[in-house]
Design goal:
oxidoreductase activity, 443 residues, three-stranded antiparallel β-sheet, globular, membrane
Amino acid sequence: MACSVADSGFLFLASKQRPIHSTRITQVASSGAGTYCLKWESLPQIRSKQKSCLISLRKTNVVRAVAVPIAPSSLDSAEDRKRLSEMYGFRQIGEPLPDKVTMKDITETLPKKVFEIDNGKALKSVLISATSYTLGLFMIAKAPWYLLPLAWAWTGTAVTGFFVIGHDCAHKSFSKNKLLEDIIGTLAFLPLIYPYEPWRFKHDRHHAKTNMLHEDTAWQPVWKEEFDSVPALRKAIIFGYGPFRPWMSIAHWWLCHFNLKKFRPNEINRVKISLGCVFAFMAIGWPLIIWKTGIIGWIKFWLMPWLGYHFWMSTFTMVHHTAPHIPFKNSDEWNAAQAQLNGTVHCDYPSWIEVLCHDINVHIPHHISPRIPSYNLRAAHQSLQQNWGKYLNEASWNWRLMKTILTICHVYDKEQNYVPFDEVVPEEAQPITFLKKVMPDYA
């Protein structure tokens, strides 16, 4: 903000507006005659050059101007929600859910049939994943080099279906036989080198504490204090929350699921069993792949599809819970119904991705009740649209949505929710400015 005081007693204020958030400017003028306070609120959320505003003060000698960032425009306004939807790449941004609404209120509106486990449908999902994954491996084996990226994309998406099957098993929504669920869940996670029980324990906490500061085990914003305290790692953090974010689940996988110190004493034995299964698969499966196909074959048949899986793992997770208007809150302010219904995003993807990934992107009902099997999520979402539709955040995957997340949703701020890196450390945020230049803005 630039300020100047003229001899005539006029104050000129020039404010460079942010492209996304409103700005509240509080100006305090002190003089022998008293103190005057002037406020501008809810400035338009548009890009503009610096504008000069003329304010007349009768008696002014000293001026102190303070710019205080505030949250995005009020979501109470339908006009603001529509404008933010277009700006962020959403189809709809839901209006705030009233404080009095509870999770029980929402759950009771769902049809009982969406909670029913159907072993036939569960088996069908296994057959879809096994068939599509086998087809993917065949495509990799037969495809010329220039078609390999397509084969890897298909196979990585297909193996993501195995993750969704294990995901249902972890939530006890796959089969009525709980021992069978644990066995299938463990086997489904093995090609991904993912330990089933450690992931299950962490994921349960994500559901219990969705978008709760410090407690949510999925995505968390960057903390300004931590960011400032590790200057040597700043560039890595900026890349991790910017260009590399679609693969950041790899870091989460490694840091959160193999360290026994991160688990409660009553969880350790089950964690050790899962880790033993994963290490056995690596010790047997990887040498077999290398023996049959060589190191290049290991890269072609395992590593590249695995990277494709992590692309979807990262992308799904950040799209489900990350947007400039979706807040993270401290435990004393957190509201379960608001976080699960109002703070979770439904996103439509191309139909082949939906089929191979068993509708995991129909995510709001899954957060209302993890007991809903993946094959019933669409019916549950239709019910939520009928009863709670005006509160839902919905989108169809598009470049503007991804660009918003990758270039804005970085450092935690209580008032704005997020502050982008290029505002916090503009001299170090070249990866973010690069994304802003090169990423498409189609919605």
